[in-house]
Amino acid sequence: MKKRISIISTFIISMSIAMIFFVVVVLALRFNQYFNTNENKDLSSSIFSFSDFFSNIGNIELFAIFGTAFLMSILVIRYLASNIKTNINKFSQHFYNAAHNGEMIDEESLSFKEFATLAQSVNHMTRRANEDKKRLEFNENYLQAVLDAQKSMVIVQLNGKIETANLAFLNFMHVKNLQEFTNEKMCISDLFIEEEEFLSKDIDWVTYIIKHNLMNHKVKIIKNSKEFVFSVSAKLLKFEDANSKVVITFNNISQLEEHKKEIEIASQIDPLTEIANRMKFNITLEHQMGMAKRYNHSFCIILFDIDDFKLVNDTYGHQVGDNILVEMAQRIKISMRESDTFARWGGEEFVIILPQSITKEAVSIAEKLRALIADKPFEDGLNITCSFGVCEYKKSYKLEDLIECVDKKLYFAKSEGKNQVQF
User: pLDDT digit string (tens) for 285-309?
Assistant: First the structure.
């Protein structure tokens, strides 16, 4: 290994050389004086008589001696400063490369021991930093491999921006890399569809999920004109003295939701008449009562059933009776407004919800429906009539009160001769 000398040692050696040079000059001048003035004296007795020398030497000679010594000192210092500056520049460049690129410092290129010692320390730290960097890269690659192995979409957010995304996410978004996605969208919530029961992009949805982690959260996304439903979960990862990251998982439950919706629809549809059943009616009625209380508006319900329907079944059979129920439902259904709810209450009874209506309007509609049924014969030329009860919602009513009210009106219509509307 190359031997290096320290800065102090270099300074001492350089100054020693200057002193030796100074002594040599002094001796040379003294020797010259000896030959000029003391040609017959013994050399050994005169050359070392420095007191005589300084007493006899002239001012010019003395100035020349000290001037020469001062000049040598300046040259030594400049030489030393130049070498130090050169080493500082080399070390600075090497240190920059080590800090930014992980490059090792070439100790052989440094002249002074002090800089070489610093280089050894920096190389030791750089070596450890490079090892840490390799371990970090391995961990990142390992984490990415784990994320890519997931079928669900997984993203990692930092300060609201996506930092990492797995392969399932990129494939779903039809992008090659995360940069391509972020160039098009600021956030994945830009794709959220605003619907009831789904997370909204207008709120801090990530924070909302974290705070309500025991709830089930869903989002709806439309991609390539197709709807997808995802269950969403979020996990907060906190680091000391660092910004927290959030791992967000999107699990595709589109098929499950579609199947659930089919079951839900089937559970709320009467299989014979294909209109809403009693369960759907009760759900809608509770919702309508809530809306009426909140916005202070009224609504009415109509309850009607087929007069003497048991006689029809007994005389013509249950198949004819079923056909009449189906045709009855179709006649009424095409006469309903889009906002109305028409349901089979049970057996031969039907019920209608008329939002934002009053008794007078509901009675008028009931009369039209009564005539629609009575004026046109059904299957096999059978003439069918219905009795109607109408009741308007009051704020004091509970659901049971409203049903009891309209049921009494229907009973009154039956007792008064049938084929009529009572309110």
Answer: 999 998 898 888 899 999 999 999 9
